[in-house]
Design goal:
By secondary structure, the protein is mostly helical. It is globular, with a radius of gyration of 17 Å. The protein is built from ten helices and no strands. α2 (24-31) packs across α6, α4 packs across α5 (80-89) and α8 (156-168) crosses α9. The termini are far apart. Helices cover 57% and strands 0% of the residues.
Amino acid sequence: MYARLLLMLFASSLAVHALAAGDPARGKALFAACAACHGEAATGNSALHAPVLAGQDSAYIERQLRSFRAGLRGGSGSDTWAQQMRGMSLPIASDAAAADLAAWIATQPAPRSEGSLEGDLRNGNNLWQGKCGACHGSAGEGYPALNAPRLRGQDSGYLRRQFLAFRSGARGAQPQDTYGKQMAVMAKTLDPGKELDDVLAWLHAQDAATP
């Protein structure tokens, strides 16, 4: 039984990466339309509410582009920024183009967080390891085989907005959004006040703590 489970996980991992086979050179040209918000090196822009994309697994980027195009993200609800991104995703009209774009983004090194956030780092670590680390990695590096994105290095304001969107149902409420629904359930296990502050402070500190 255990061996069968390992085989299934391995096959799932292969399938994820098979979807992400794209041409980074073509993707770089496509990204020119994204750079005004997400930055020339895909490092994001907090003032424009544009998240960091650099360092993400290409299959995750592909999946989010497909979700935006299909209206699973930004198709309804009160998330203005997601609705804006949905409009921007529509010109990426084919899965091949999405794969190319994602392939280039995956070549860009993830930025390192600077400064610090106020919070209890010990409590943040305990909460992270107990609620988040099994999917998103022990240091927030992500876990592609579980379709869990990298969160380390991401803008903390963006992470807070997405967490609250999952809790409120603005994100993850669509029946076809399998992974969004999972995250919406998990978001309700963490208090949006001090617990969230502590987790974000701990996550922000990981770049300083890890070479």
